[in-house]
């Protein structure tokens, strides 16, 4: 039977990751309603190798797990695939216990280790494609720059065909008993949280992610994937590879998200009319989101997922409603290419919303639907018809794009 604290992956590799159910916002921005796992792995043999660490707030249970496998044996190496503090901030605690441990990293990681932790000694620097012999174990390293940080890299153990993929193939959500893909219901829960993780964390580097994914998928025979978040893939690694390739390519679905900003409900009513128009036009998958209430993490995920994105904003101080202004800035960073956009605006005296929505769409060089209702005060019957028309036009454009 598996030990209660650590889980064997093969005869010389153990899962020693931890769950974090305390942190409410990942990177202080992205909601974690169901937490997140920081995965770490211990490879044993003539030398003992720790692959990735955890965030400092979970260090005590992490050390407990590490020592449960190691017993009184030494820790010889730490591999830092990625220096972001959710995988590195426990490092000083580990160095306190194992001061002679050597740190395997690449030349870009050196700066991070120095600047975050004042670590400069006992470093082994690896290059892209280099194979390192660590006792009777061998790891080959591949650089994956900007997925997720400049220093990010992965490693591969040829003997077991295991890929240690750091942030790549990760997702939000704690591992609740099930560690492996065949021990949990991925599609029912982890799929959405993996999608949101990718879009929130890696989305703006999708091009680099696709390059790295193609490189790994075409050059390596991968039987097991050990990422630093989310399940370990031993039964069907191709499933997470395919999902990530699809996300990195921003493969959109036939659906529409309507994001509105409304202070007193008038613009919300307009959004409802647009939604009705979308359904009337033949698209059933429609989400209407209040930009003031739904965290932008979910709005980005919806916009990445659906072909149609419609933004509707009231005016505020002759400008966009501030939460809408914020989300348009975030959309600019995401560099989405596969959407059809729609816009509508409302105002009470001198406007501001529509002018700025148009400027946003022009800046991003987005394809925007022709019907662009701009409504003064509450929508009258004629306005409601125009809003419905916008929705119908969106549905028609989505259906036409498939032909
Ligand atoms: Fe999970 Fe980029 O850190």
From TrEMBL:
Give the matching Pfam families: Flavodoxin_1, ODP
Top-rank taxon, per record: Bacteria
Q: SMART domains annotated for this entry?
A: Lactamase_B
Which CDD domains would you find in this protein's record? flavodiiron_proteins_MBL-fold
Which residues does the UniProt record annotate as the domain Flavodoxin-like?
256-395
Matching InterPro entries, A to Z? Flavodoxin/NO_synth, Flavodoxin_CS, Flavoprotein-like_sf, Metallo-B-lactamas, ODP_dom, RibonucZ/Hydroxyglut_hydro, Rubredoxin-O_OxRdtase
Cross-referenced SUPFAM superfamilies: Flavoproteins, Metallo-hydrolase/oxidoreductase
What family does the Swiss-Prot or TrEMBL record give for this protein? Answer: In the N-terminal section; belongs to the zinc metallo-hydrolase group 3 family.
Q: What is this protein called?
A: Flavorubredoxin
Q: Which organism is it from?
A: Peptoniphilus stercorisuis
């Amino acid at each position: 039977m598996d030990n209660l604290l650590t889980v064997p992956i093969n005869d010389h590799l153990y899962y020693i990751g931890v769950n974090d159910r305390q942190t409410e916002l990942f990177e202080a921005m992205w909601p974690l309603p169901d937490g997140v796992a920081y995965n770490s792995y211990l490879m044993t043999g003539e030398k003992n190798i720790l692959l990735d660490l955890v965030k400092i707030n979970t260090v005590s249970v992490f050390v407990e797990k590490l020592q449960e496998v190691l017993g009184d044996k030494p820790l010889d190496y730490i591999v830092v695939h990625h220096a972001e503090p959710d995988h590195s901030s426990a490092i000083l605690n580990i160095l306190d216990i194992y001061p002679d441990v050597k740190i395997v990293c690449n030349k870009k990681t050196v700066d991070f280790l120095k600047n975050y932790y004042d670590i400069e000694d006992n470093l082994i620097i690896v290059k892209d494609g280099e194979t390192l012999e660590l006792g009777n174990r061998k790891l080959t390293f591949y650089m994956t720059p900007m997925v997720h940080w400049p220093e990010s890299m992965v490693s591969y153990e040829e003997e077991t065909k295991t890929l240690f993929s750091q942030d790549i193939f990760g997702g939000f959500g704690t591992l609740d008993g099930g560690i492996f893909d065949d021990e949990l219901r991925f599609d029912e829960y982890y799929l959405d949280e993996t999608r949101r993780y990718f879009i929130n964390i890696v989305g703006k580097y999708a091009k680099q992610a696709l390059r790295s994914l193609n490189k790994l998928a075409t050059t390596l025979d991968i039987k097991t994937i050990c990422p630093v978040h989310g399940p370990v893939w031993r039964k069907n690694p191709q499933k997470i590879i395919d999902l990530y390739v699809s996300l990195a390519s921003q493969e959109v679905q036939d659906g529409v998200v309507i994001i509105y900003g409304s202070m007193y409900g008038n613009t919300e009513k307009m959004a409802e009319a647009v939604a009705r128009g979308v359904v009337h036009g033949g698209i059933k998958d429609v989400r209407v989101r209040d930009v003031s209430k739904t965290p932008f993490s979910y709005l980005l995920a919806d916009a990445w997922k659906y072909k149609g994105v419609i933004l509707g904003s009231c005016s505020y101080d002759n400008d966009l409603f501030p939460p809408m202004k914020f989300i348009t800035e975030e959309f600019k960073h995401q560099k989405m290419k596969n959407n059809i956009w729609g816009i509508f605006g409302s105002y009470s005296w001198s406007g501001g919303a529509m002018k700025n929505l148009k400027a946003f769409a022009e800046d991003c060089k987005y394809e925007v639907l022709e019907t662009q209702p701009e409504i003064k005060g509450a929508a009258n019957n004629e306005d409601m018809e125009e809003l419905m028309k916008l929705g119908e036009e969106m549905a028609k454009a989505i259906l036409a794009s498939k032909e």
